[in-house]
Amino acid sequence: MENSFYFSFSTHRRSYSLRLNRRKTQWTAMIIVVVLIALIVSLKLLVNVNSKQSESMFSLLGNVKTLQSNNESLFQANLSLSADVGQSNELFEAVDARIGLLEQLVSETDQEAEQLHNPDYFSRIELASLSYKHRLNMLNWLPNGKPLDYHRISSSYGKRLHPISLRRSKHRGIDLSARNGTPVYAPADGFVEYTRKNHNEGYGNMIRITHGLGFMTLYAHLKTLKVKNGQFVKKGQLIALSGNSGASTAPHLHYEIRFLNKSLDPKPFMNWHIGDFDSIFHIVKDVPWDYLNLQLHNLSTLPAPLLSQLESQLKAPSELKDTSISTEALKETFIPIAA
């Protein structure tokens, strides 16, 4: 009886009793204690493992952030390096373009020296400078650039429907829409061959200027004339104010360029400048540019007294028949072109 335990309990209907063996109960308790201890040890081990894994994860996250920061720094450095490389490439291209231009100038001036049969007279740099001066002289003698500050091209060169007669005909110039009274400037050196004012038909008030080497420019529908017949003008000089005179539907400048009295499209000449000097030679085919270049070079090499005498005659063209410049002297200044 001492090795047993009795438990009893009852309800209002019946009673219950439970007998437990003391020895069996002790073994059961021991097993439960062992199991609890094993569970506690396992939980502790799991906690330690999770703690280490968390620490490793936090360490990995820190490394990832560091790598991201390093990657961003490398990306910015790469962008900066790319920009530097781009600037360097642009600089190299600009230097290469300048070298190409100098080589072209040197080549051209070498050809000039061969034509003059004296290739050793100038150094290569002096000949390149001479070629540049030749280009500036050409831009002073021949019409180039815009004759006025205009809003738009209201009518281009070539075939068109006339705004007044409503007939299809060739437009021998270009119409530049501009505010009434806009200053008009000479596009090259020359002398005023013809002026007309107080005229309300056709071209209205107009000016015609003769330039060097067979070129002529015409300005129509003007408001006010600032030059007179026979007057010598310089490139960039004010010659008139634009208007709406004659057969005109709105204020504008009718601008013409002619070579040996043959009309040319003025637009390529308006875009012609020292920075894009050669393009016009390929666009305008109706002008013998090689011949004109050679003649201009010969004019630039005239003796000073003969050149000043020729300029004085240009300023007074009506007296050209009385010039004292001999025909033989003029012939000597031009090199004949082989057929």
Keyword list:
339 residues, alpha+beta, Glucose Permease (Domain IIA), ten-stranded antiparallel β-sheet, two-stranded antiparallel sheet, 7 helices, disordered C terminus
Write the layout of secondary structure elements.
Elements: E1 4-10, E2 15-21, H1 22-115, H2 124-141, E3 152-155, E4 158-161, E5 168-171, E6 174-177, E7 183-185, E8 190-196, E9 205-210, E10 215-225, E11 232-233, E12 238-242, E13 252-259, E14 262-264, H3 266-270, H4 279-283, H5 289-300, H6 304-315, H7 327-332
Antiparallel strand pairs: 1-2, 3-6, 4-5, 6-13, 7-12, 8-9, 8-11, 9-10, 10-12, 10-13, 13-14
Helix pairs in contact: 1-2
Summarize it.
With 339 residues, the chain is of the alpha+beta class.
Fold and architecture overview:
This protein is an alpha+beta fold. Among the domains are: 100-141, no CATH class; 152-275, Glucose Permease (Domain IIA) (Distorted Sandwich). The protein is built from 7 helices and 14 strands. The protein has helices at 22-115, 124-141, 266-270, 279-283, 289-300, 304-315, 327-332, and strands at residues 4-10, 15-21, 152-155, 158-161, 168-171, 174-177, 183-185, 190-196, 205-210, 215-225, 232-233, 238-242, 252-259, 262-264. Strands 3, 6, 7, 8, 9, 10, 11, 12, 13 and 14 form a 10-stranded antiparallel beta sheet that branches. Strands 1-2 form a two-stranded antiparallel sheet. Strands 4-5 form a two-stranded antiparallel ribbon. 17% of the residues are buried. The model is unreliable at 116-130 and 314-339 (pLDDT under 50).
